[in-house]
Amino acid sequence: MKFKSLLNGIKTYEAGKPMELLVREYGIKPGDIIKLASNENPYGTSPAVIKSLNRSIDKVSMYPDDSAYELKSALASHFDMLSENIIIGAGSDQIIEFVINSICDTNSKILMAKTTFAMYEIYGRLSGATILKTQSHEHNIDDFKDIYKKHKPNIIFLCLPNNPLGECLNTDEVYAFLDSIDKNTLVVIDGAYQEYARYKDPSKVIDPKDITTKYSNTICLGTFSKVYGLGGLRVGYGISNRNTIATLHKLRPPFNITTLSLQGAIEALKDQKFVHDTVEKNFEQMIRYEEFADKKGLKYIDSYTNFIFIYMETNSKELCEKLLKKGLIVRDMTSYGLNAIRITIGTKKQNDTVLEVLDKLC
Ligand SMILES: *Cc1c(COP(=O)(O)O)cnc(C)c1O
Question: What is the residue with the minimal CA distance to atom 6 of ligand 1?
Answer without folding.
Answer: 91
